[in-house]
Amino acid sequence: MSPEALAYVLRPLQNLFDPAEYPDLLVGLSSPDDAAVYRLDDQRALIFTTDFFTPIVDDPYDYGAIAAANALSDVYAMGGQPLLALNLVALPSKLPVEILTQVTRGMAETVRQAGAVIAGGHSIQDDEPKVGLCVVGLAQPNHLITKAGARDGDVLVLTKPIGSGIITTAAKADQAVPEYVAEAVRWMKRLNKVPAEIAVALGVRGGTDVTGFGLLGHAWEMAEASDVGLRIDLGAVPFLNSAQRYADEGLFPDGSLANHAAFKQYARFEDDMCEGDCMLLFDAQTSGGLLLSIPQDKFSSFEQQMASHGAPYWVIGEVIGRQDFIEVV
After folding, report:
1. Does the structure show a pLDDT above 90 at 285?
2. Which domains does the chain have, with CATH numbers?
């Protein structure tokens, strides 16, 4: 759904569930975060999330693995550790059962890689395939990462390149180079486990994952929730191979165009910037990276620990004082 439609649908629910009546609901409908968080006691909080989508790749195993990594990412984005998951499966009745087996195997092996377990699920028949997970995770209430945790002076870090939306759209139109599609698939299957665990250990409090609303959409949600401004260096943003080429050809999915319509008012670009590259900042991502707001005094330790794990990251900007838009320089 578009950001405007989603906000309209959720508004009555927000009015029905007054946060004051649910003091142990630490993160719910009143904030734009990636998952719900419910406090059990002073040391434990449960993280709840769900995500599912239609196929974006042809290979059923990869489809399941990407769907699982995407759902698990919401737990990592909140600073949690996934505990268990339930499969959500909707497939046409005429689809061979072997395909469902490959899809669920992709999901299961990815969940196992995360150190969690699949404990059940639900399946229905549907003309259009859809798969995903409900995920429960665990976190410490005082160590959550939220969109409201960014502070002036923090370093903005991204942990995956941008461009999965436009590349998978080009692939559906048979206009994509297979090796570049394979590269995008590898990134989408990659868990955000390592950067999330390092961020939590260092006491990072601001962050989100970059998914359907694109980099600028989720960045704006973080800026607004934290009451700060963000400055993003376009030249520092990593793009997947061929993403810029497909951007110049205008192969953006509908979700990216909807993001541009919804969030362009919150971005300021310098006049001489490439239109295609700017548009990529609105590209709707699947299983994207974490966007972390890291305090200056913790950044050196973050660099060292990420390097020790061989984990990639890119410094793409900084947090600045409150503004009504994101600066793209």
Report:
1. yes
2. 3-143 (3.30.1330.10), 155-328 (3.90.650.10)
